[in-house]
Amino acid sequence: MENKHIVQRFVEECWNQGKMDSIGELVASGCKLHDPVFPALTSGADNLKRHLEMCRIGFPDLRSSIDDTIAERNEVVHHWTIRGTHKGQFLGLAPTNRTATVSGTSIHRIEGGKIVEQWSDWNLMTLMEQLGVSAAPKTTAPKAESKQA
Hints:
Distance between the termini: 67 Å
Oligomer: single chain
Radius of gyration: 18 Å
């Protein structure tokens, strides 16, 4: 139960309220980070803080909700949804003033009362499409081949 509470506080205080001071209390200084969308975000509470600040600059009304939680041993898994309006620079993109909703899954490993490792998985294309930056290629169902007797 304590591990769930640590991760819930991280989401509420850091992501939703922008309380970056809470990172030092909830995240180990050498925390390992894994997110294929942000390959340069590899480790460290300071890097995570800068990442959260960048996200909150791009989406100042950003709000993360926890849709489901599974906690076993020293890991907490969250399925989450983040919503926000693109009002600031984000990933080199000028503000579009569009609202976007993205969902994903994060796994947090807890040791000594702090998050020591985090894996996140979400779809960047979903965000880009909502911002009007890119669209996934249109696919059509393959046509059935007709057989002649």
